[in-house]
Fold this protein.
Amino acid sequence: MDDNIRFIFSLSIGFAVIIGIVRFRRMDSAYYPLIYNAIVALLVEILNRILTEKGLTTAFILVLNIFSYIDFFLFLWLFHNWGLFNRKKSTFITIAGIFFLIWLSESIFITGLKKVNLYFFMLYVFALIFFSVNTFNKAVVHERSSIFKNPKFWICIGIIIFYSFFLLTVTTGLSLFRQNVSVQFRRDLQSISVYSNLLVNLLYAVAVIWVPRKKHFTSLF
Amino acid sequence: MGPQEKALYQSLLIVVGVVGIILFYFIITIIRYQRRSLKLHKEKIQAEIDTLEKERRRIASDLHDELGPLLSAVKLQINSLNTTDPDDEEVISRSSTHLDSIIRKLREISNNLMPNTLVRKGLQKAINEFIENNRNTYGLEIRFICEQELHLNQHKEVNIYRIIQEILHNTIKHAQASLLIIKIVTEGDRLLLMTADNGKGFDYFAKVKDNPGLGLRNLQSRAEVMGGEFTCQSDPGKGTIFTIEIPL
């Protein structure tokens, strides 16, 4: 796949960002982490393009490693806002803290900052898939209006699809890269993630459209 | 890419395709079943509410139209007794007073079950009357704000009236509040019913998780059958705010 097409596809997260910014003041604040995440993801995609063109791949790996934790943290915050951890701030902080320690340990002691934190990636991806499946099931069972209009449903489907394919390609890549595979094969393998990324970015855009409006709770007094 | 890598890549694409198709089928099936289950759930709640309302209407009508006149006739007959014995006169007078309070209580019960004003004069008047009857009776100041004319079908009027009744009873029973504000506004194609009290509040999510109680479930069900959305915001010490958005 051509690099330009890959870049254009990756910018599709911009739809969610634009809709999110337009609706930001009126939307339920519980969904803010999703918008922050979309903005960070868009910045990372642009940085990826700039740094790759300048040949600064190590710098991009550093950005990617930092993004991995931010991505996890923002999704964790979103799940916390949805009441996944029984709305207990302590559980949310504990999970975020444990994953931060794992991320830090891998970044410093195992892979270092110049290599991709693949083990942390796999761990947080598994965690996000489990959180999403849980929230998805809860939404299906408890939702009393059309599930089509439930942003949780779209976001969870997005996470499950994207990160499942991501895990599939990463684990396949990990086992194959030990053997001597061609650069073309690696690029083609990555293109699977590009298509799933495009699909998920569009799902996020749909989800942002359906994010409920902010409730004016204090208007009576 | 060599032929071996090409074959490997094709196998991988097939795996991805198969997983994709399974995921897609899984999602479509879930949506279909959720829709079906939702429809059944709504029909069930609707049937329950309809039965309840019908039964209330029947009991209210029986009390008002059958027992009421009967008691009035008994009172009339007792008052028409002619006696010169002061003890008998006192018994007649006490019986007459008791009968008066029974008739009054009967009217109250009948009115609570199905308010005449709601059926004849509409929601706004019925709420005003209901609030007037409960104003300051439990040390609770009630303010009702509704500046627009409401045009709703009877089904919605009854449900909104019941919601307000339930919220007021809950506030009196649990909130220990001194002020309750009830506001109804129409915005475009939706009606917004908001209530706020300055009572002791409660942990809504903990309550819903443990046992939401009949009152909260009733509010939720009535909002659902109208296709509305029910939201509650409450924290200990911060009062309770209910918001119900109903499509018009």
Residues 20 and 113 of chain A are 32 Å apart (CA to CA). Chain A has one domain: 3-213. The mean pLDDT of chain A is 86. The domain at 3-213 of chain A is CATH 1.20.1070 (Rhopdopsin 7-helix transmembrane proteins).
